[in-house]
Amino acid sequence: MDKFQNINKSLNKIIGIILIILIGLIFYTIYRSEILYAGLYREYYFKYYVFLISSFFILIIINFLNEKIKLKIYTILISLIIGLYISETFLIDFKNLNSKTKYEHYIDLKQTQDVVVAIHPSHFVLKKINKKKLFPLSGISKQLTILCKKKENGKFITYDSDRYGFRNEDANWDKKNIDFIMLGDSMVHGSCVASDKTINSQLSQILQNKLNIKVSTINLGYSGNGPLLEYATLKEYLKYIDAKRVLYFFYEGNDILNLNLELKDPFLIKYLDEKFQQNLAERQPDIDKINYNLLGQEIKEKNVGLYDFIKLRRLRSLLAILLNKKFKSQKIESSEEIYQVYKDILVSLKKLSKNQNTELYFIYLPNITRFSDYDDDPNYEIYSKIISMVKNLDIKYIDLLDEIKSNHNDPLSMFQLRRHQHFNESGYKFVAETIVKKINQIENKN
After folding, report:
1. Is there a cis peptide before residue 192, judged by omega within 30 degrees of 0?
2. How far apart are CA 434 and CA 430, in angstroms?
3. In whole angstroms, what is the distance from residue 194 CA to residue 44 CA?
4. Could you give the CA distance from residue 344 to residue 310 in angstroms, rounded to a whole number?
5. Taking a C-beta distance cutoff of 8 angstroms, is the pair 12, 73 a contact?
6. Burial bucket for residue 158 (CB in 10 Å: 0-12, 13-18, 19+)
7. Please, are residues 180 and 247 in contact by the beta-carbon 8 Å criterion?
8. What is the pLDDT of residue 327?
C-alpha cells in the first residue's frame, strides 16, 4: 500500500510539473499569436490552443478520479510521452550530430571576420518587427553573407552582398546598360550553389562562351519571396537600373501559397497601390540596422538543438511527410480571388517594366515532384491557370516544365541529391541554356 501511495505521489508531482508547462505553453502561444503576429496568424495557432487547453483540463479532470484509475491513466500518458521522445531520439542523425548549422558557422566566423547570415524579406511578413515603419526587401549590404549549407557536401555557400544587400557584384549597379534583371525566390537567389553557378552567372558565361556576347545582370532574387514581395522589389529598384529585360521566375511549388500569406500583411499589401513606395535604395542604413536586429533574434531562436528535441521536430516532420503522401489528394486549392490578385500583380509587373522600356519575360519553374511519383497532386492545376493567364496578358514566357520534360532524359539528376526542391549546378545550367535559346527564338521571330 505504501509503495502504491509513493508511486501515486510521484506521479502527482510529475503531472503537476506538466500542468505548469502547459500553462506556460498556453501563454507562449498567446504571445506569438496575439502579440508577435497581432492576431493575423490566429487560424494557424488555433490548433495549438485547442490541444494545450484541452490537455490542461483533461489532466485536471483525471486528478479527481479514483486513485487506481488515475494511476493507470497517468501511466499510459507518461509512457506515451516517453515513447514519443524515444522515437525522436531514434530519428537523430548521430553521425552528423556535430555538423554545424549556418548560425553556428556564423558564430565561428564572426570571431575573425565581418560576416552575416542572409536575412530573407519573408521573415518580416506578419511580424511587428520595427512596428513596420519600414519593410526591408533585401539583406545586409556589403557583407560576406552566409546563404545556406550545401546538401551534397556540407559546405557553406557564401557571397559578398552589394550596396543594397542583394547577391551581385556591387559594380554592376554603376553600369549603364544591364541586359537582364533576375526576379524570383531561392532558385534565383542561388540556393545552394556558388556564385559562379547561379542562373544569372551561368547565363552570362553561356552568352560569352558560345555567342561571344558580354552581358551584365542584376539579381534581385531572394529566398522565401512570393509574388507580392517580388513585385515590391522590382517596384523599388527598377528605377535605378537601365535594363533591357526582366526575367521573372514563377515557382509552382509555393508561389501561390506565399502570396496567400503576403496578402495578410497590412504593410506589404500597400504595394498593390500603384503609387506606394518606400524609397528603400535611399534607406539602406536603416535596412541594415533592422536586419542586424533580426539576425540577433534568429541566432537566439535557431541555434538551440535542445529546443528542436523538446518540440519533437524530427518526428513531426516525418509525420507531416507521411500524412502529406497519404492525403495529398485532399489539399485545399487556392481560391479564385488569389488568382485574380496574382493576375493584377502580373499586369502591374508588365506595366512597370513597360514604363521603364524593359521587356518582361515570365519563366515557369516546376516543382521536383513533377518528375517523381506524385505528379497527380491537384495543386498542379495551377499550371494551366497560370500559363493561360500569362498568354492572355500577352507576356512573353518560357515554360521550363515543358522544356525539361521534352529535352531531358533524367530530370531528377538536375536537383540536389535527386530529392530536394532546389536545382544543383547542372540544373541551373540547363535553366540558363534554355533561357538563352528561347529568348533568341522569341526575339529573332520579332
Report:
1. yes
2. 6
3. 36
4. 44
5. no
6. buried
7. yes
8. 41
Reported as a single tens digit per residue, the pLDDT across 71-100 is: 788 788 888 888 888 887 877 766 555 567
Query: What is the C-alpha to C-alpha distance for residues 347 and 358, in angstroms, rounded to an integer?
Result: 14
Instruction: Specify the CATH number of the domain 102-445.
Output: 3.40.50.1110
Per residue in 205-236, pLDDT tens? 999 998 899 999 999 999 999 999 999 999 99
Q: The C-alpha cell of 194 is what? A: 556558388
How does strand 156-160 pair with strand 144-149?
A: antiparallel
Work out whether the CA dihedral 203, 209, 212, 216 comes out positive or negative.
positive
Domains of the chain, by residue range, sit at 2-90, 102-445
Asked if 106 contacts 117 with a C-beta cutoff of 8 angstroms, the reply is yes
As a three-state string, the secondary structure of 56-109 is: HHHHHHHCCCCHHHHHHHHHHHHHHHHHHHHHHHHCCCHHHCCCCCHHHHHHHH
Handedness of CA 115, 121, 125, 131 (dihedral sign): positive
Long-range contacts of 391-394 (CB under 8 A, 24+ apart): 393/343, 393/346, 393/347, 393/350
What letter would DSSP give residue 154?
-
